[in-house]
Amino acid sequence: MSARKPIRKAVFPVAGLGTRFLPATKAIPKELLPIVDRPLIQYAVDEAREAGIEQMIFVTGRGKTAIVEHFDTAFELETTMSERGKSLDILEPTRFPPGDIITVRQQVPLGLGHAIWCARAIVGDEPFAILLPDELMVGKPGCMKQMVEAYEDVGGNLISVLEIPREEVSSYGVIDPGEERGALTEVRGLVEKPPVSEAPSNKIVSGRYILQPEVMRTLEDQEKGAGGEIQLTDAMARMIGGQPFHAVTFAGRRFDCGSKTGFVEATLALALEREDMGEEVRAMARRLLG
Ligand code: G1P
């Protein structure tokens, strides 16, 4: 048994407008766009559940209620399916015990740091996870489970990182890496969206975090940073030194579903791996490539 407080809560910032996917996201939250037949948010929630997390906290905004509907009972649908003798197993991942799906609104889009801070009363005084659903992480075990395992080992704060070509780092949070031990790297510094010439490494923050509740206090007086937004990265950077801070290099694949090409890549990759359609999709891809 580990002496550390277990990670029971996960925060999913889902208030973003999804302008990159317009017009698809005019009336539908981008988190509900499907990769094959599961919405993006479902992959992130499944990943959290696999890691033992029980409470899912969505930081939502206007026009995002369909996300909550997705994790609710669909009375008419389920009754009709049952009457027709259809199995409801396919809906299993969308079911939660009462009280375990929690939402809080971010009224104004002031940045990722501000979105997380909106969940402070629900997170309370325990360590918690954050998952950005745009980043689709595929692995066995999943990314959050790998992080929870690392957390049981070192405690403190953890972020998932991966290496990308140096010229692309300006779109991400970047770490200043210290000592490495297996998949763990000590984090000496963090900078949000640095110019390539000033980036301390090519290891980027890839959208999974385990943080101590003190981050909420730090966010309280966090000033605006890159893009004029209140950045989570900046608040985390201020916590380094006071608490252990490590990066976990995820053993698995990552798809950036915040970009259209990343979204298409994820769709193709997951379709190719599916037992029920992989072969057909492979043949189709060959045909299309001529
Ligand atoms: C956010 C974080 C950034 C991180 C990225 C991962 O940026 O601020 O540190 O690297 O997610 O996708 P955003 O994509 O919201 O600009």
Automatic annotation (TrEMBL):
Gene3D superfamilies: Spore Coat Polysaccharide Biosynthesis Protein SpsA, Chain A. Residues 14-270 form the Nucleotidyl transferase domain. It comes from the Bacteria. GO terms for biological process: UDP-alpha-D-glucose metabolic process. The keyword Transferase applies. It catalyses: alpha-D-glucose 1-phosphate + UTP + H(+) = UDP-alpha-D-glucose + diphosphate. SUPFAM superfamilies: Nucleotide-diphospho-sugar transferases. Signal peptide: none annotated. Keywords: Nucleotidyltransferase, Transferase. Its EC number is 2.7.7.9. It is an enzyme of class 2 (transferase). This is UTP--glucose-1-phosphate uridylyltransferase.
